[in-house]
Amino acid sequence: MQDVPTFLRQKDLAFRDYLDSRLEALIDAEHCIRLNYEAYLFGDLWTRDRFLSDPTLYCGLLTDPVSRERFRPREDSPRSRHEGIVYYFQSEAQRELFDEDPETYRLPGWTM
Fold this sequence. Notes:
Blueprint lengths: L3 H7 L21 E4 L2 E4 L3 H9 L1 H4 L3 E2 L6 E2 L7 E4 L2 E4 L3 H9 L12
């Protein structure tokens, strides 16, 4: 499920902007940000850019792709990018394992 907006449109789902609930989220690639296994949707580029200015401030809990444990990333958390998606990790050792073979850590049924 690489393409979250397409999946959501096929299911005819609607969401509110992640940071501003007064806005209806736009279900397209430009307004969708992926971190780890999570997707964040935004109603305009201003709220999307505000989120991107410091994702760890806004994202809440994420699932570490290696340990599969939920954790709250910090600004200095180890991170890696794979196929355009930023992944945060609980430790540098987990980031190194992920970087060796990212496909090992994908969710069943998901493509990366």
